[in-house]
Amino acid sequence: MFNMLIPMIGILGIFYFIVWRPQQQQVKKLREAVEGLRRGDTVILNSGIVGKIAKVPAKDDPEISVEIADNVTVRVLRAAVGEVRAKNQPVEAKTDNK
User: Its principal location (predicted)?
Assistant: First the structure.
């Protein structure tokens, strides 16, 4: 019975280092980027909308203002930010190979 337990522990260890740990690091990096948002930063929302930060209220406020077009500003939750880009950093085009 103990011999069957050793491979399971090995598989769980591999799972931790291949899947779980990199995901935690990615979430931490995004959280730090969202906390450090500044006016003018380009963000990509989880819905796919790309915009620039127009207004960042106090850190405890869950909403930010994002300008998605000229004179079009929307208020979104900080949790809706999926990616933060520095000022003037281009958005990479993603293509699906079907």
Answer: membrane
SS3 47: coil
pTM to 2 decimal places? 0.67
64 touches 51 (CB < 8 A): no
Could you read off the pLDDT of 52-91 as tens digits, one per residue?
Answer: 999 888 878 889 999 999 999 999 999 999 998 876 556 5
- Beta strand pairing call for 42-45 and 81-85: antiparallel
Q: Is 43 exposed, middle or buried (0-12, 13-18, 19+ CB in 10 A)?
A: buried
How many other CB atoms sit within 10 Å of the CB of residue 11?
10
Q: What is the architecture, at CATH level 2, of domain 2-85?
A: Roll (2.30)
